[in-house]
Amino acid sequence: MPRLTLDALRARVHAALGEPAVTRRGFDLASAIEPPPSPADRPRGVAGLPRPVRVFGAIGLGAVVAAGAIAAVSVGLSGSNPQSQLTVGPNGGGTSSPQPATSATQPTHQPTATPAPALPGGGFQPAAVTAISESDFWMLGTARLCSGCAPIIVRTTDGGATFSAIAPPPGQFADYSQGTATSISDLRFADAVDGWGFGPGLWATHDDGAHWVAIDLHAKVVDLEPGADGYVYAAVDTCATTQPTGSLPCFYEVERSPVTTDTWNVVLKIAGGNQPEPSLGVHGTDVWLMDTAGIWRSLDEGVSFTPLPNPCGAQLGGEIYPVSPTAVWAFCPTGMEGGPWLSTNGGESFASEYGGAAYPNSARIGAVSASTAFVTGGGAVNETTDGGTTYRSISGFGGGDVTWLGFTDPTVGYALVESGQGTQRTLWRTGDAGARWSLVTVS
Amino acid sequence: MSTVAVMDGPAAEAARFELRLQPLYRDAVRLAYGLLRDSSLAEDAAQEAALRAWRHRGRLREGSDLRPWFLAIVVNCSRDLRRSPWWRRRAELPPVERPDAGGDAGYSAEIGDLRQALLRLPDRDRLIIVLRFYLDLPHEEVAAITGMSVEAVRVRTYRALRRLRIDLASEDV
Fold this sequence. Notes:
The structure holds 2 protein chains of 2 kinds.
Chain A: E1 3-4, H1 6-17, H2 61-71, E2 84-88, E3 98-100, E4 112-113, E5 125-131, E6 137-142, E7 152-156, E8 164-166, E9 186-189, E10 195-198, E11 202-205, E12 211-214, E13 220-226, E14 231-237, H3 239-242, E15 251-258, E16 265-271, E17 279-283, E18 286-290, E19 295-298, E20 306-308, E21 319-322, E22 328-333, E23 337-343, E24 351-352, E25 359-360, E26 364-367, E27 373-377, E28 380-384, E29 392-394, E30 401-407, E31 413-419, E32 424-430, E33 438-440
Parallel strand pairs in A: 2-16
Antiparallel strand pairs in A: 2-3, 4-12, 5-6, 6-7, 7-8, 9-10, 10-11, 11-12, 13-14, 14-15, 15-16, 17-18, 18-19, 19-20, 21-22, 22-23, 23-24, 23-25, 26-27, 27-28, 28-29, 30-31, 31-32, 32-33
Chain B: H1 10-21, H2 25-36, H3 39-55, H4 66-83, H5 85-89, H6 105-120, H7 123-134, H8 139-146, H9 150-163, E1 167-168
Helix pairs in contact in B: 2-3, 2-4, 2-7, 3-4, 4-8, 7-9, 8-9
């Protein structure tokens, strides 16, 4: 082992690495700046200059796609009721043995009947959207941007031409991180009458909002997705309820209930306790849960789960977006930036599909198929149609920042847009696979 | 008659930001080159880092040092390039662009061995070596770029040198 002085070591490292052959004169930021749009195109904000976005709620594309899938199939309750759950230890070794299912959780309150409200006037601020077909979708929002205020739900059956208000759950609307046991930040419908307001509370309706029941799963509901098998799945975090004691173990769980009833059973239970929250993905009858340790996949309606490797870095979390039994997108944050990953074998392995771009850790994917996906983040929207090899920038949202984007089918999609320096939210809709976007007006 | 164009708006802001970054260009390319061993890729990584820095300039706290913040972005960009499918599809890494080692055959062999050893280092160790002994940065700046404590930088530098089978004579590990 040679004994070197600091200068000698530096000289050797310099000699070993050599010097790069620099061919450019320096940085070029001009390519980052798009020509400013005309004032008519840019009522607020600064187009072409992405700025950090505030991510709100726990909105997931999977719900939109899953709900769309439900609309396309004949939904019937499966006769099979799983009688086992897979409990996995902290190491995620997959050595767990099936155990009897926990007792079903029943509604904790009698259904609450609420008269249908009038349509909100101007200023409706959408926070979540869920669709069951091209023409039928609901929006959850508030009369003004707020947390801890009354939720508003509006519904359309004609593709957004007209809306009617339906009664919301009695709880408050609040951002997930600020929510209470009865507040909601997100909305899903599986069909025309069965829906759920959740995050972190959970409310269910089976008559399109005429009555809502509160469901207590003894945990925070992180995400919820209906499947095409007559079941609805919820990812929950029991840590939120046990952490104050500091002594109880806490878990991330997948719970499942028939769509038409409120009979919830734990079908997956894994060690939890650390942020960030897990991500739930449902496509057809397949279920994925991604946490910091790995991905858990069920191919049998949640009866059993198989551990798979997580493409994302340890302890940084991620989001999973299945679009078919085999095509699964994931967004992985890194220490500073994040990027999309794609699996073509159901999540058994992933490849990074950044396409040369970089996104903030808060970016999300609007996945359509194995080849087509939209990545929203940092105020920008990029689309790939070749599985992530290349991306092109998408614009046309009135100069606002797209904070979420999802498709119900390959042509119909929705985008939630924040504008006015975060003072206004709007919903935009496309019927031609994103070529043109139109502002959805609640009237 | 001369005229003075008063620039304002986003383009002017970008121009000012670019001006602030320009003094860091060479170090950015050298850092990326030390990690990627490819001049073209290194320039790509530096340029990508500039774009990311522009997008996220709001995260740079007022009064804080631009240099370590930006070089940390360069590290991330280089890492992302190495993770990209294109990188993985490369059949063979390009040879290191050889410096002029002079006529000393023994010295040349030693440098060659060190080059190979550097290539075999784990990424994080190579990063430390590149920052500390290629960019000649002090421990404090290495710590700021890597997000480690100064003591952790010292420990990792020591371990990296052990892996390189180098015993540094001074205490300045």
